[in-house]
Design goal:
With 511 residues, this protein is mainly alpha-helical. It has a single domain, classed as Amino acid/polyamine transporter I (Up-down Bundle), CATH 1.20.1740. Helix content is 80%, strand content 0%. It contains 24 helices and no strands. Helix 4 crosses helix 19, helix 9 runs parallel beside helix 18 and helix 13 packs antiparallel against helix 23. This is Glycine betaine transporter.
């Protein structure tokens, strides 16, 4: 036995185990969740829901404060003297055109959620506004769009920009490994960043990433199943959802294995083309005049009331609503920051800090506002014109995975639009998942910018299996709960990471 412990074979096995400990731990947790869900011994969704309720009751304000801090942090850095610093050497140029860069960060950063909530969220707020606002009124219409814009606009992209900027700066400017723990070198030193503290930070980053992406995969699966049911009368059940996950997982693993320049970039460009195509079609077949009016008017209202809506004073008086909407969104975006931040950092070498922040926040925010103006108007306009009663609209919004297909059925060419939307759902599914798979493989390969295909395949399977486990145990509510729980510790990591970034920037020789 002692002879074996001293052998080279044993040493190689121990090194392999140490190097892949994080991956093995997650494989164990996913198998545990699947077994628990399948046998019914306990419901993992119930556990996450209990934890989510505790966080909402005690720490909801932490999510609100942190997301506003991220906006302040972003703009301070962008328009300070540090804005001209390049993410890389002074003579390096961006690897990707602005169009390809935007396509990849947009697909990775929002994904399936845009289709899932694009129709459902505005009509929910329109039919179930807060406080004394009358459902179906002009005031509720303003509330619906302002709230939707807030949840999908500047706030989430500011959180992405802070994490992405920190990673890109240290990775390309200081030549550190592509890991979240590398951001903290100015605060804790290089040795501790590679030790227990650094490994804990990277573990939380992986946990947040897997949770956030699995949430989106689960939501996307539910909506694809609903679309198949609407168009082809295919039943909505877990068996069909398992088939959907299996098919799409094989596709996103293939694109992740193909690499950024080939698979991920190509599918992201296709995804962007389809997204803008479906927006254009719906703009034409929908109430075009009302869409334009809402786009202009509600965008003005959004920026006019930005400070007030950001602090959510009204929402604090309605904690259940706040937990279901704003806190869920802020937690969801925070849980996505490690992988989206890492991914947009990976594709942003050669850009200046100012270009990075303005591009990451500005372009996707504008796209989201246009998206919700179009699809939100498709639903709310039916209620305003009396085509559908407010109560019927409310019932449609309560089942967000079918909302788009039910609303589009009231407009011309609904079958064609629904089929294109199904394809778009699949490409959104793939772009989010393949980006996450690539990044997770980097996280567990000591920051290697070109991780092995074996790691990509394994992480793709982990994401898919976790989504399956959560669908089996809790459905949409279980998915949302896990995202909120996973994001909570990462609030502190992002804030400390920003402090570390500032400490490093101050040492830059800027004239």
């Amino acid at each position: 036995m002692n002879k074996y412990l001293k052998s080279e074979v044993y040493k190689v096995k121990m090194e392999l185990l140490k190097r892949n400990a994080l991956l093995f731990l997650y494989l164990f947790l996913v198998v545990l969740i699947l077994l628990a869900s399948a046998t019914g011994k306990f419901t993992i969704g119930t556990i996450f829901n209990t934890m989510m309720k505790f966080i909402n009751d005690k720490f909801a304000i932490a999510y609100l404060i942190s997301m506003n801090l991220f906006i302040i942090f972003s703009f301070i850095i962008a328009f300070s003297k540090f804005g001209n610093i390049k993410l890389g050497s002074e003579n390096c140029e961006p690897e990707y055109t602005f169009g390809s860069w935007f396509a990849m960060l947009f697909g990775a950063g929002m994904g399936i959620g845009l289709v899932f909530w694009g129709v459902a969220e505005p009509i929910f707020h329109f039919t179930s506004p807060l406080g004394s606002i009358t459902a179906g009124s002009e005031e509720s219409l303003n509330f619906a769009f302002i709230t939707s814009f807030m949840h999908w606009g500047i706030h989430p992209w500011a959180s992405y920009s802070i994490v992405g900027l920190s990673i890109a700066y240290f990775q390309f400017r200081k030549n550190t490994p592509a890991l979240i723990s590398s951001i903290f070198i100015p605060l804790i030193g290089e040795e501790k960043s590679k030790g227990l503290i650094g490994k804990t930070i990277d573990f939380l980053a992986v946990f947040a990433t897997v949770s956030g992406v699995s949430t989106s995969l689960g939501m996307g699966t539910m909506q694809i199943n609903s679309g198949l049911n609407y168009i082809f009368n295919i039943p909505e059940n877990i068996r069909v959802q398992l088939i959907i996950i299996a098919v799409v997982t094989s596709m996103f693993i293939f694109t992740a294995v193909s690499g950024i320049g080939k698979g991920i970039s190509i599918i992201s460009n296709i995804n962007l083309f389809l997204a803008f195509g479906i927006m254009l079609i719906c703009f034409i077949i929908g109430p075009t005049g009302q869409i334009l009016e809402n786009l202009v008017k509600q965008t003005y209202n959004y920026f006019k009331s930005f400070a007030g809506t950001s602090v959510q004073l009204q929402g604090l008086q309605h904690k259940e609503w706040l937990g279901q909407w704003t806190v869920f969104y802020w937690a969801w975006w925070i849980s996505w920051t490690p992988f989206v931040g890492m991914f947009i950092a990976r594709i942003s070498k050669g850009r200046t800090i100012r270009q990075f922040i303005v591009g990451v926040i500005g372009a996707p925010t504008l796209a989201s506002i246009i998206w919700f103006s179009i699809f939100g108007t498709l639903g709310t306009n039916l209620g305003i014109r009396g085509v559908i009663s407010v109560e019927t609209l409310k019932s449609i919004a309560l089942v967000p995975e079918t909302a788009f297909f039910k609303i589009i059925s009231y407009y011309p060419f609904s079958s064609i639009v629904s089929i294109i939307t199904m394809v778009l759902l699949c490409t959104f599914f793939i772009t989010s998942a393949d980006s996450a798979t690539f990044v997770l493989a980097m996280f567990t390969s000591k920051g290697n910018l070109n991780p092995s295909n074996k790691k990509k395949v394994l992480w793709g399977l982990v994401e898919a299996l976790l989504a399956v486990g959560l669908l089996l145990s809790g459905g949409l509510q279980g998915l949302q709960a896990m995202a909120i729980v996973a994001a909570f510790p990462f609030i502190i990591i992002i804030i400390l990471g920003f402090i570390s970034l500032c400490k490093a920037l101050i040492k830059e020789d800027i004239k």
